Amino acid sequence: MGRTLKDRGEVVDPVLLEIIAGSLASIEKEVETAIGRTARSPMIRDAHDFRAGIHDRLLRKLTGRSYSSLVHPIVRDFPVGTMRPGDVFFHNDVYLSEGGIGHLPDLCVTVPVFHDQQVVAFVQAFGHHDDIGGSVPGSMPSRATSVFEEGLMVPPIRLWDQGVPNRAVLTIMTRNSRMPESLAADLDAECAACLMGARRLGELFGRYGRDAVEACFDAIVAGTTATFRREILAKIPAGTWTWEDYAEHDGVDPPRLHTQRITLTRTPDAAPASPGDDPRAPRDAGGPKLILDFTGTSPQARGPINHCANYADGNFLAKWLAPILRNLADSPERMAELDVNEGVVDLIEMRFPPPGTLLTPVFPAPTNARTFVILRLLGVLAGVLAKAVGGRMPADQETIRYTGVYGTDAAGEPYLMREVLGGGSGGRYFADGEDTIHVVPDSRNLPAEFSEARFPFIVERLGLAVDSGGAGQYRGGLGYEKVIRMLTDGYFMSIADRSILSCWGVRGGKAGRPFEVMIDPDSQDQRAADALADSEFVPAGTLIRIRTTGGGGWGDPLDREIDLVVRDVAWGKVSRAGAASDYGVVLSGPPDEPAADLGGTALLRTRMRDERPDEQPFFDRGPGYARLAGVASAEVDWL
């Protein structure tokens, strides 16, 4: 297939272009709204851990509100000429998804769009479902050593044939799930919503004509490429930089450093033509690009933290990583306006190591906790860009971890509550990080009232984790503190990273506080739960306290404005002890009206500056790195 639908240079009506772009965004939002309102499982309906996407017949993602899966495996296995109106395709097989599916609970439905009896586009949705079988409830066994332990694998299939659902296949899938009713309802919601989206998109072709709509598709993709080159790549000097970060454990082997490394090369701008050049000679009209080389990434893990990235030339991973580039926009407002669609793919060249690494695992390596790798890669790209642009990138964040409880309620019915709790984002060169954000757009924590009504526990506290944000001139955002009390016997589960290694700070900023789960905190029976836990027994009456990660800090904490530290203490985000130890700010006054002791603060800050080393690494990884590495910083942490 070519890279464009129409001849390059075709003039597009700018008004029609805005209409088509707005219609695509509206259709995508309508599909997601329909799923959210008609799905049944808390993970889809309430936590909103799902995404929709619109793709053209060249398989290019056109919408940029959020990431989505890929159409490539569907077209690979089902030629477009064999598709019919009313068809719905389904898959969740990680190794047959061309990189678009990361773990088996992510179920994907794809619907072709027809105009004049020909396929002209695709509407797709994929989301994280409660249970698809496997060795543990929730289908995310933290100690899996094979994908066969993780649940039912379904390669691309035709789930609906011309509007008729394949009931036999649906029965097989629901029979393999511990939550069959919610799985069936969620799939119905996703199929119906995508069929509705396909009708909407078909109406758009009928209204404006195929040639005009497809010309707009080309313009949308090309516009993103040009915008990112002009506004983002222009901020990165030509050169090469290397940085790495780590997952801390794989659930099977003892904790150690599992490296993810990126060597970033920003190619030079195309040289301008000289008067003596042959005008017929070929020239690089595309302009600069970024080369991401993952050589140096660790071998694949025995446990489930592997991610299949090396398919379709890294197409999914390029679109997953590209939002990090938006941090180089001129302003936060402009950053929010920049869509990430297929247009970014032409700007990023992926170079993968040979098979057998964390990013190039070999079947049947397990993958259910692949978030440890793909989330870390967001931070690695931010870190290597920070080295390239003098630190004008946010510090680190870790905003996905799965926690939950399961068992049998007082009525004897099985239940499964699983939640994706966010964390604090990194401080930025112009502002503090945000508190309790979620990397999945529009996703959220489960409301306490809903949880208490449906599951046998009480939410005793849901708030901000004090002192969790990394200290800095601009502080890292705070993580959650959630405390629940079990009403019946049950089991606690957790799939979380960053319990040893903290979210790093940059340019003098300090690392945030790591993830922690404490059973019966502040009692004589207090104990820490493992961040990777499948079945931690929690009898009735047990208190479970979950504290999620704080974002890293940006800039020297001793340069933070004193008034901001006083405000943070008054708001309960920083303790008085933290104000002194992290920021050198001495406070006086009653607990509810803190005030700065300016003289004491000046003396303390002077002493703290005098006592610290003259040279410090560009990145601060926190004390957990030394525990695993045996040294305080990595060689790549220094400029």
Task: Enumerate how many helices there are, as a single number.
Answer: 14
| Helical percentage | 25-40%
Terminal CA distance: 43 Å
Mean pLDDT: 95
Number of strands: 23
Structural class: alpha+beta
Low-confidence stretches: 277-284
Largest sheet, order of strands side by side?
1-4-3-2-5-6
- Give the overall shape: globular
Instruction: Determine Rg (CA atoms, Å).
Output: 25 Å
Strand content: 15-25%
Largest sheet: 6 strands, antiparallel
Describe the secondary-structure layout:
Layout: H1 14-38, H2 42-46, E1 50-56, H3 72-77, E2 88-91, E3 106-115, E4 118-128, E5 157-161, E6 164-165, H4 167-175, H5 180-208, H6 210-231, E7 239-247, E8 258-266, E9 290-293, H7 315-321, H8 332-337, E10 348-351, H9 371-388, E11 402-408, E12 414-420, H10 448-454, E13 457-464, E14 480-486, E15 490-495, E16 505-506, E17 516-519, E18 527-528, E19 532-538, E20 543-547, H11 562-570, H12 576-583, E21 587-588, E22 595-596, H13 598-611, E23 619-620, H14 623-629
Parallel strand pairs: 9-10
Antiparallel strand pairs: 1-4, 2-3, 2-5, 3-4, 5-6, 7-8, 8-9, 11-12, 11-15, 13-14, 14-20, 15-19, 16-23, 17-18, 17-20, 21-22
Note down, in words, how this protein is organized.
There is one protein chain. The chain has helices at residues 14-38, 42-46, 72-77, 167-175, 180-208, 210-231, 315-321, 332-337, 371-388, 448-454, 562-570, 576-583, 598-611, 623-629; strands at residues 50-56, 88-91, 106-115, 118-128, 157-161, 164-165, 239-247, 258-266, 290-293, 348-351, 402-408, 414-420, 457-464, 480-486, 490-495, 505-506, 516-519, 527-528, 532-538, 543-547, 587-588, 595-596, 619-620. Helix 1 (14-38) runs antiparallel to helix 5 (180-208), helix 1 (14-38) crosses helix 6 and helix 5 (180-208) crosses helix 6 (210-231). Residues 277-284 have low confidence and may be disordered. It is globular and about 80 Å long. Strand 17 and strand 18 (527-528) form a beta hairpin. The strands form 6 sheets. The chain has a 6-stranded antiparallel sheet. The protein has a 5-stranded antiparallel sheet with strand order 13-14-20-17-18, covered by helices on one side. It has a 4-stranded mixed sheet with strand order 7-8-9-10, covered by helices on one side. The two termini are 43 Å apart. By secondary structure, the protein is α+β, with helices and mostly antiparallel strands.
